[in-house]
Specification:
Elements (H helix, E strand, L loop, with lengths): L3 E4 L2 E4 L4 E7 L6 E9 L6 E7 L4 E3 L7 E6 L4 E6 L8 E9 L4 E3 L3 E6 L1
Parallel strand pairs: 2-11
Antiparallel strand pairs: 1-3, 3-8, 4-5, 4-9, 5-6, 7-8, 9-10, 9-11
């Protein structure tokens, strides 16, 4: 069973920065895409950013130019650098991994709270 463990969430003031980490229990080369999603109460999870095994990235319009997704293959870890945070970025952030055989996995989530 694959485990994805997120860390790095917390409370930050608007305009501040946080870096989320997602550590996988197996090599991230075994996933064709990894991503970060977020969810607020009463809403569906939405894609924030994704990165493929080849390094291609994609971002939600709301976070472009503020967030950066990256991967460290040696550490089996994917990061989400979040800058210029806004109160509307407050959510539980989840790591997601998509395997090559249509398998997919979620992390347990980490809370990000941005105060105004």
């Amino acid at each position: 069973q694959v485990q994805l463990v997120e860390s790095g969430g917390g409370l930050v003031q608007a305009g501040g920065s946080l870096r989320l980490s997602c550590a996988a229990s197996r090599t991230i080369f075994s996933f064709n895409t990894m991503g970060w999603y977020r969810q607020t109460p009463g809403n569906q999870r939405e894609l924030v950013a994704s990165i493929t095994s080849g390094g291609s990235t994609d971002y939600a319009d709301s976070v472009k130019a503020r967030f950066t997704i990256s991967r460290d293959n040696a550490k089996n870890t994917v990061y989400l650098q979040m800058n210029s945070l806004k109160p509307e970025d407050t959510a539980v952030y989840y790591c997601r991994a998509f395997g090559w055989n249509a398998d997919a996995y979620w992390g347990q989530g980490t809370q990000v709270t941005v105060s105004s």
